[in-house]
Amino acid sequence: MSGASWVLVLNSGSSSVKYQLLDMATERRLAAGIVERIGEEGGAGDHAEALRRAATDLKERGFGLDSPELAAVGHRVVHGGTRFTRPTLVTDEVLAGIEDLVPLAPLHNPANVTGIKVARELRPDLPQVAVFDTAFHATIPEAAARYAIDTEVADRFGIRRYGFHGTSHAYVSRATAALLGREPADVNVIVLHLGNGASASAVRGGVCVDTSMGLTPLEGLVMGTRSGDVDPAVIFHLERVGGMGTDEIDTLLNKRSGLLGLCGANDMREIGRRMGEGDAAAQTAFEVYVHRLRRYVGAFTAVLGRVDAVAFTAGVGENSAAVRAAAMADLEGLGMVVDPVRNAVRSSAARLVSPDGSRVAVAVVPTDEELEIARDTYALAR
Ligand code: AMP
């Protein structure tokens, strides 16, 4: 076994490639970057070119990917279906399996597959590891994973709740236990991953038992541009009465809804500014967002029975004291309290925002999906 300890983490999206190089001997981040606007003017032509640009950038910073220090490449893969429930060493068969799942994630899995193929060509000698966004949710019991539709139809088309952001929910639920000085197996945590995409999960003793996202990342919380939960009949109505086509509705619900659809802005900072100016639409957007969040906190409290901690993470969760305060307001009855002074502190460290001695710890726990992917990759590659 060699002493190589670098892991390259690649997150290949439909129009961007994010990359991070970590030294797993110290878990230190060596370099990070993003190539955006793939396929657009001024951007990289395709994913292969994007990856070459990333490699050139890393080389210029002194981290050539031809280095013997590089141990493995870890890939974020959005959909693992029911087949991939843990990090997996990429083989031709695994790659074909990920391609088979494209119908479940038509926007994401093709980009992930391309990223893997290009990285394999770049360093055919290295282990490539796929880390699935759905994997942490594979433990969700049937009662929570099944939609109440005809079982035969559901099974024929792979329709069930898979959940996403799993890497983040796994990392944050463990980091929350560490913050409390307890073992993951001893704590029940509600994780609220509030970024541009947003999802909640209920984690019992380190095992995920429910999550807000479903067949796709569209279900659940109000997000930057996604609606989250709607009555499915909204879609029939838009078709029959609105004359809209399937793709048009897909775009409406995924790209032009959520905070953006409600008030014209999808960034919580902008919404805060507009609320300060008395903008009624921004105020409504904030209230719809918080109301949905509270519904899930309540639901997952019932799912878990006993809650030890609520953890806020990702862009909004880590930075918006206003969202945290509103989400937890008047929940003393559930043991959830936010201390206004603690909540106002800005920090990049994991921290408690509830008063000492609270029945439920309310915490801000910065997520680190790249580190989690690098850990999974390094563990498997060795
Ligand atoms: P993420 O997807 O985790 O990168 O989160 C991105 C989102 O975080 C942005 O769209 C903003 O809405 C939100 N965000 C980032 N910084 C702040 C901040 N200081 N206050 C409120 N929201 C923020």
Automatic annotation (TrEMBL):
Annotated site (Transition state stabilizer): H165, R226
Class of this enzyme: transferase
Subcellular location: Cytoplasm
Cofactor note: Mg(2+). Can also accept Mn(2+).
Binding site for substrate: R76
InterPro entries, sorted: Ac/propionate_kinase, Aliphatic_acid_kin_short-chain, Aliphatic_acid_kinase_CS, ATPase_NBD
Active site (record annotation): D133 (proton donor/acceptor)
Cofactor list: Mg(2+); Mn(2+)
Transferase in keyword set: yes
Pathway info: Metabolic intermediate biosynthesis; acetyl-CoA biosynthesis; acetyl-CoA from acetate: step 1/2
Keywords: ATP-binding, Cytoplasm, Kinase, Magnesium, Metal-binding, Nucleotide-binding, Transferase
Residues annotated as binding ATP: K18, H193, L194, G195, N196, G197, D267, M268, R269, G315, V316, G317, E318, N319
EC number: 2.7.2.1
Gene Ontology MF annotations: kinase activity
Reactions that this protein is recorded to catalyse: acetate + ATP = acetyl phosphate + ADP
Residues that hold Mg(2+) according to the record: N11, E369
Domain of life: Bacteria
Family that this chain belongs to: Belongs to the acetokinase family.
Subunit structure: Homodimer.
Role according to the record: Catalyzes the formation of acetyl phosphate from acetate and ATP. Can also catalyze the reverse reaction.
Name of the protein described by the UniProt record: Acetate kinase
